[in-house]
Amino acid sequence: MTTVAMRQKLADYLKTADDKKVKAIYTMVEDEINTLANDWTDDFKKELIARSKSFNNGTAKTYTWEETKQAAIKKVKSKRKNAA
Questions:
Q1: Which residues, 6+ apart, have CB-to-CB distance to 14 below 8 Å?
Q2: Burial, 22: exposed, middle or buried (Cβ in 10 Å; 0-12, 13-18, 19+)?
């Protein structure tokens, strides 16, 4: 079963489930729901919007896959060298 199908089945179930079951399910995921709702501060959202605009208008500094891979390799080698 796909995740989409699971979501739909859960949504359909929750519409008709008795209160006790809804409360039990909510209790199982309450911390995660609250955490997800509070993860993105206003400053974080503003930064994401600014970066998105920068990317869309072509002013963002971007890297090719090869540049990214080489930077990662260089970083790993540097850490290994410093750890030795």
A1: 22, 25
A2: middle
The CA distance from 62 to 67, in Å, is 10
The full set of domain ranges for the chain reads 3-83
User: Do residues 14 and 25 lie in contact, with contact meaning Cβ atoms separated by under 8 Å?
Assistant: yes
Smallest CA-to-CA distance from 63 within 55, 75, 50, 47 is with 55
Contacts (Cβ under 8 Å, ≥6 apart) of 33: 26
Structure tokens given for 67:
């540049």
CA distance to 8, 28, 32, per residue, from 4 (Å): 6, 20, 20
pTM of the model: 0.42
Q: What angle do CA 39, 12, 14 make, to 5 degrees?
A: 60
What gap in Å lies between CA 51 and CA 48, rounded to an integer?
5
Positions of the chain with pLDDT lower than 70, given as ranges: 36-38
